[in-house]
Amino acid sequence: MPRSEIYGWDIGGAHVKLSRSVAGRVLEVAQWPCPLWLGMDRLDAVLQAALARWPQLQAAHTLHAVTMTGEMVDHFSHREAGVQGIATQLATALAPARLRLFAGDGGWCSAADAGRHWAAIASANWLATARHVALATTGAGVLVDIGSTTADLIAFSGGRVLTAARSDAERLAGGELVYHGVVRTPLCALGPRIDWRGQPHNLMNEFFATTADVYRLTGELDPGHDMQPPADHAGKDLPATRQRLARMVGLDARDGSDADWLAMAQAWRERQLAEIAGQLQRVLARHGLGRDAQLVRAGCGAFLVDDIATRCRLAPGVAYADIAAAVDPAVRGWGQVCAPCIAVAALLAREEI
Predict the structure, then answer these.
(1) Are 206 and 157 contained in the same domain?
(2) pLDDT digit string (tens) for 83-137?
(3) C-alpha span between 156 and 308 (Å, rounded)
(4) Does residue 346 lie in a domain region?
C-alpha cells in the first residue's frame, strides 16, 4: 500500500498550491497568492497560513512532495539560488516533517541535496503533471495546462512523456511552454493591434490591463481563481475592468457601450486562442500525433481547451481531475486548477511502497 497521507506542494512565482491525499484520494486542495518576486517573506506568510490550517504539516511522520517554478523570479540572482532558498525555507518551516523534492529524471532528493540537483528540480512541475497523466492514460495525447501565467503543452504516449526537453528554455524553443495565461498576461503581449468598433487600433504598450480583465468580462474566469491584483490595483468589478480595457486603445470606458467592451474582450480572447492553438499544432506535429490525440485539460484556464481542440480539429478535452487522480467531488474544481501539487504527491506515493 502507498503511504497513507501525503501533502503535495507546487511553489510558483505567483501562487502556492497544496494538496492533501489520504490513501491515494485527494481530500483537500488549497491555493494562495504568493508574489515571490517581492521577497521570501511572501512565502513565509503562505507557510504560516498553511500551518494554521493544517498543524500536522510539521509532524515528524508527515511526508511532503515538492515541486516548484518560483526559483525563476527576479528576487533571486540565479535559479540555483532560488531552488536552494525555497528548499531551505520549506525544510525549516515544516521541520521535523520529511520533505522530498521532485527532481524529474533524477528522482527525488532531500532539501539538503537541493543544491546538487537544482537544475533538475527547477521548474519541473509540468513534468510531474505530464508524467502523472501519461501513467494514468491509455493512448496518446497532449496535456494542456493553462494557468494564470503560462500554458504547458506536453505530449505523451504509451505511459511516458514524449518530449526530451526539460528546461524552460528548451520548452520555449519547442512550443511546449507558452507564456500565455488567463490572469497575469499583459494585454499588450497579445498585440500589436486590436479591433475597436471594427477598426484596427495600435495598442498602448503599457501594463494597463491583463487577461484577467478579458475573462472577467466574458464571465469565464472563476472569481476564486482571480487572486492577483489588477494592473492598476483598482477594483475587479465590471466597470473597473472595462476602464482598464479602454486604456489599451487610449479611451475611457464611457467612450463605448458595455457591448463594445465585451466585443473587444472577445477579440483578445480570439488572439490568445489562436496563439495557443498554433503552438499546440507545433507540438502535435513534432511528436507525430494526429486527430485521434486526446487533450487533457488542466489549470484555471481549462475553459479554453475545448475551443482550442476545435481549432485543431481534435475531440474535446478530458479533465485532469477525472482521469489522473481520485479527487473528492468537494474539491474537484481546485483539483483541476492545482494539478501539479496533486501529481507530485501521486508520483511520490508510487515510490512509497
Answers:
(1) yes
(2) 999 999 999 999 999 999 999 999 999 999 999 999 999 999 999 999 999 999 9
(3) 18
(4) yes
